[in-house]
TrEMBL record:
The gene is LOC120031215. This is Uridine phosphorylase. Belongs to the PNP/UDP phosphorylase family. It comes from the Eukaryota. GO terms for biological process: nucleotide catabolic process; uridine catabolic process. Phosphate binds at residues 97, 141-144. Pfam families: PNP_UDP_1. Its EC number is 2.4.2.3. GO terms for cellular component: cytosol. Signal peptide: none annotated.
Length: 318
């Protein structure tokens, strides 16, 4: 039965009261004999979802299939669960839309690029966790971003995801009506990630707001797209306003991620490394090797968090 605290289709929708259960808010699911998760090629009548995924406690999502396979190999080594060089089959091999990997209590899923792509994935991921009867799930998006006023390679843990006008909200048109959803993330989890970075002592990590845009070029005030109707000064004035409002990095998925996780009762965080300072340029000039090392930083940080949480859970049971 679809369940969860009621929510309003008025102006704002509120956080689920409990974070132990994964909620769906759709009474129509109750009357469905089978729920086929099309873009995952998984279904309630074709797969035993509780047996396959019921032990999941951590979900890590990121843009590219390669990055998410790399993460599952990394976490397998960190948790000493299997040989990191072992073959990890793509659970979603029956579709070319997303990739999914699992090791122990950790699920790793790609989400593509931009709000529409991650939103589709999250609808099916949330239903997957619900059908699998998962509890106490922590979910983290890892990725890359453009920084504001930060040295390249700095990791940003998102406090709030804000839109292009610097407001912490996601606007979505449903049946012709604009629905506004909150984009707050779990502050306790953000602080724990910051502490994990201090424990590691390997790279700079900050907590700040993340601006989520609808595209990579004009929406992010770039000067190098196919179209540009503003000046360098106008770009810099806009980015200065963003920085002064608390924005420390820019990407294209955090708002819908924050909104949907909040509605589902999922404890969520966004961890992105900055590849450049957007106030100093638009294009990446660092070497492939440097950029690759930067991209490892979110998975190192999240891997440390998962290891720390699992150790704490084991200690509390002993």
């Amino acid at each position: 039965m679809a369940s969860g605290p009621g929510f309003s289709d008025e102006k704002n929708e509120t956080l689920c009261e409990s974070e132990s259960t994964v909620y769906v808010h759709n009474p129509h699911l109750d009357g469905m004999k089978d729920d086929f998760l099309y873009h995952f090629n998984l279904g309630t009548s074709t797969h035993n979802l509780p047996a396959m995924f019921g032990d999941v406690k951590f979900v890590c999502v990121g843009g590219s299939p390669w990055r998410m396979k790399s993460f599952i190999e990394y976490i397998a080594g960190e948790l000493s669960l299997e040989d990191p060089k072992a073959e990890y089959p793509n659970i979603c091999a029956g579709t070319d839309r997303y990739a999914m990997y699992k090791i122990g209590p950790v699920l790793s899923v790609s989400h593509g690029m931009g709000i529409p792509s991650i939103a589709i994935m999250l609808h099916e991921l949330i239903k997957l966790l619900y059908h699998a009867r998962c509890t106490d799930v922590t979910i983290v998006r890892i990725g890359t971003s453009g920084g504001l006023g930060l040295e390249p390679g700095t990791v940003v843990v998102t406090k709030q995801s804000v839109d292009a006008t610097f407001l912490p909200r996601l606007e979505q048109v449903i049946l012709g009506n604009t629905v506004v959803r909150s984009t707050d993330l779990h502050q306790g989890l953000a602080e724990e990630l910051l502490q994990c970075s201090k424990d590691l002592g390997q790279f700079e990590t900050v907590i700040g707001n993340t601006m989520c845009t609808m595209d990579f070029y004009e929406g992010q005030a770039r000067l190098d797209g196919a179209f540009c109707s503003y000046t360098e000064k106008e770009k810099q004035d806009y980015l200065t306003k963003a920085y002064e409002s608390g924005v420390r990095n820019i990407e294209m998925e955090s708002s819908v991620f924050a909104a949907m996780c909040q509605l589902s009762g999922l404890k969520a965080a966004v961890v992105c490394v900055t590849l450049l300072d957007r106030q100093k340029g638009d294009q990446l000039n660092s070497s492939h090797e440097v950029l690759h090392s930067y991209q490892q930083r979110p998975q190192i940080l999240v891997g440390h968090l998962i290891k720390k949480m699992l150790q704490a859970s084991a200690s509390s049971r002993s």
